[in-house]
């Protein structure tokens, strides 16, 4: 079997017999000497590049790369993007004898510290990226990763900021374009996946159509560092550079693989195809990584590896990564390793995406596409609503089983399904008329138990079962997925009770006290569904059939629950009490829990309090982690806390 790429002459054999690409790595211990002047801790610390290097060595990966020592940038190259004054000021730092002089200079910049070695490190960081980019452009290397510090992307033409002294990536890009025309690099794509906006890089190529700058970053309407409007999506560049600056400004933290991949698939990749770069420079900060103390996002090493893999389809794989931010030592080491493995074209590391993009992610992506479609035809089409109202994988319905208990359920399901089919054939019978009325009214269904996990809730809408459920749901008559999903908290006490449930087996299930308790906060996932669907959820939650002639909860009941706050429906089910928690966008927020009288019985011990069934708790954790964006530890602690406090 022929090995891909072998004929290009760029791949070479290895002792393990595999053929891989020639990957350059720059590492130079000298860059560790840049540190805080009096030994205070700082997130941008020398160990950042050490841990990355150690990880690559320990994994046996650096040994398969071409290791290139650091090299010092030339002033004339730095001056391609920086002012003479800025370059000589940074240069002069090395000759200053006293810390206080450097501290004075540092204090005039935003988020900068300096010591006697800062200048040397800054020259090395910029020069190393230049050298690596040159080797890749020349074809001596296929691609590479410059493990450098201080970082660069915040540094502006005349200013250091945000831990950055020189703009390493921008210097390298300008060097290739202006100093090495014979290499044939005419168009450069700079991708900046650091969690912060690459304000410096944006400024340097603002009017330059030879450089397409793409930055995805936490923005929070201008509240996140570097604060202001520069990172907003309406900043598209100017003059001939108009349309060659693309910002994807996240409205919130906690963005993860799904959000970043959505930006890749629906913005960056189509635009990169149109632009067709000659080389890609990647401002590879790893501060959007899960666990980063500054970024607050959740990109996994797998996520980074997929993002990188997708970029390697361009410019014949000519790509140069330069480290920017990233402050969790473990996260940056693992993310870096995942990336170098991709550069080596090892088989992609294992992983999968379970979460969906935030609703706000789609909003931002739509807005970016709309703004940039004037320049990039591939962004013109509106994204389909099927994509945005993410459907979960089709639930698996298991009907046949030797387990007698399951057979009972199966019979029940088949029975209900056949009824549904019959009813579907006479749409206009009396029994369906309530459905027509209630289908016109939207409510928020607020879930605080296993329904917080979207796939579990969708069983009540679309039918089916998820892992851990012993029972199949028939779903609602109207199987339209929720129109919107959002999260919030309400001051009600969450607790777990009952001996066991049909769906989850031995163990308690979640309730909230229908009465508010300002000392408690319960996390909830809100699904915008119709009042008709809400009735079908109520039926299923309370063990009733969905083909009822009358609703459990009609418009009159809605009116009185909005007034009274809570209404027991006399359904006999555990969740037969509908509580109105308030309104959002003028739509009532409803939830279902036990009656106030049942809370008294839980308190007296007449009905047992009990920690949740394991599968049930796991499902809640999945919901809280994927949608509620808690860490797994936080989610477990949240459940443990609710399960262990006395009522
Ligand atoms: N309130 C990079 O990741 N934060 N720089 C300062 C001031 C500065 C991050 C907060 C963050 C800079 C390369
Ligand atoms: Zn950053």
Provide a quick synopsis of the model:
With 647 residues, the chain is α/β, with parallel strands linked by helices. Helix content is 36%, strand content 16%.
List the helices and strands and how they pair.
Layout: E1 11-12, E2 20-21, E3 23-26, H1 47-58, E4 66-68, H2 75-78, H3 84-93, H4 99-107, H5 118-138, E5 143-146, H6 168-179, E6 188-192, H7 199-204, E7 211-218, E8 245-250, H8 257-275, E9 279-284, H9 301-311, E10 319-323, H10 329-343, H11 359-372, H12 385-388, H13 404-425, H14 430-438, E11 442-447, H15 454-462, E12 485-490, E13 492-497, E14 500-501, E15 505-506, E16 509-516, E17 522-530, H16 531-541, H17 555-564, E18 566-568, E19 577-584, E20 587-593, H18 596-604, H19 614-626, H20 632-644
Parallel strand pairs: 3-4, 3-5, 5-10, 6-7, 6-9, 7-8, 9-10, 11-20
Antiparallel strand pairs: 1-2, 11-17, 12-17, 13-16, 14-15, 18-19, 19-20
Protein name: histone deacetylase
GO cellular component, one term: cytoplasm
Catalytic activity: N(6)-acetyl-L-lysyl-[histone] + H2O = L-lysyl-[histone] + acetate
Could you characterize the architecture of this molecule?
With 647 residues, the chain is of the alpha/beta class. It folds into two domains: 33-348 and 356-379, 3-Layer(aba) Sandwich (Arginase, Chain A), CATH 3.40.800.20; 435-644, Hypothetical upf0131 protein ytfp (Roll). Helix content is 36%, strand content 16%. The protein is built from 20 helices and 20 strands. It has helices at 47-58, 75-78, 84-93, 99-107, 118-138, 168-179, 199-204, 257-275, 301-311, 329-343, 359-372, 385-388, 404-425, 430-438, 454-462, 531-541, 555-564, 596-604, 614-626, 632-644; strands spanning 11-12, 20-21, 23-26, 66-68, 143-146, 188-192, 211-218, 245-250, 279-284, 319-323, 442-447, 485-490, 492-497, 500-501, 505-506, 509-516, 522-530, 566-568, 577-584, 587-593. The chain has an eight-stranded parallel sheet, with helices on both faces. A six-stranded mixed sheet has the order 12-17-11-20-19-18. Strand 1 and strand 2 (20-21) form a beta hairpin. Helix 5 (118-138) packs across helix 6 (168-179), helix 8 (257-275) packs parallel to helix 9 and helix 8 (257-275) runs parallel beside helix 11. The chain is elongated. The termini are far apart. The relative contact order is 0.08. Residues 111, 151, 154, 162-164, 194, 196, 225, 285, 287, 324-325 line the site of N-{4-[(3-aminopropyl)amino]butyl}acetamide.
